[in-house]
Amino acid sequence: MVKRREVNIFSLSFLDIISGALGAVIILYVAVPKGNPLESQLDKVVSDVKNKDAKIQELQNELEQLRELRESAQKAIQENEDFKAQVQPVVVEEEKKEDSGVADGQGLEVGFKFKGKSIVFILDTSKSMMYEDQGHDRMGQVKAGLKMLIMSMPSNFNVEVVQFPNSDRSPYRALFGKLKRLNKETKLDVIDYVYGLKPYGGTPTRDTLSYVFNQYKDMSDIVLLTDGEPSLHNSNIKDDIFEILNNVRKWNANSHVQINTIGVGDDVLHDKTGKPYQFLRLLAEQNTGFFVGF
After folding, report:
1. Is residue 10 in some structural domain?
2. Contact status, residue 245 vs residue 282, Cβ threshold 8 Å
3. Predicted TM-score of the model (pTM)
């Protein structure tokens, strides 16, 4: 009888274990994603956070810029409102009753509140008017500004233009020698006269104001445009602004002319303690006029 071979149980069990282990390794190898380990995921999260922080900082910078722009805009609006409060776009009350004549300026807003319709413009043409402010010469600014004003004024106004100084012999020079109706021809005469002016000499304000009060008895308003402190004629010696103010009060005691002053140049406007600024401000205040600058 053939003898059966004995089966080795231990050997089969060991083989099963080895096979199972190999299968587990294969399963893990297939199940676990390749090329995206935990560290890579962590790096991606950190990178995303950094990008978000950078974006937040960028938005904060943009917000700060917008705030600065808003503050600048608010400041500009306030400065414009302050200027409007000083310069009222009103002509004379009777003007509302008249027909508009846009062709010759009638009915347009002059930009200043005058007392009446007879205006004497006094222009400082001293040597300092050739100086520049922000790239523009003062004389050029005055010429351009007066041209715009004259062209916008209604034709039922009467005007005169007096410059100072004129020459070594004369502290002033008048265009017409009288108040003249502001028709189209007069407007052209004024513009031609003004554009021919050239800076020269000192600032004999007292002599010029004295002449104007004696010459134009029927004037309602004076508009004085100047950039400097009054001086004696043909001299560098400064005049006494308080004596001039006292003289003007005497000259104007009965006629009650409204005196309006316009300061020209940064030197006048920025130093509010200086004599040019104080003189123009007081001259306007004491004679019910407006004081502005450019």
Report:
1. no
2. yes
3. 0.63
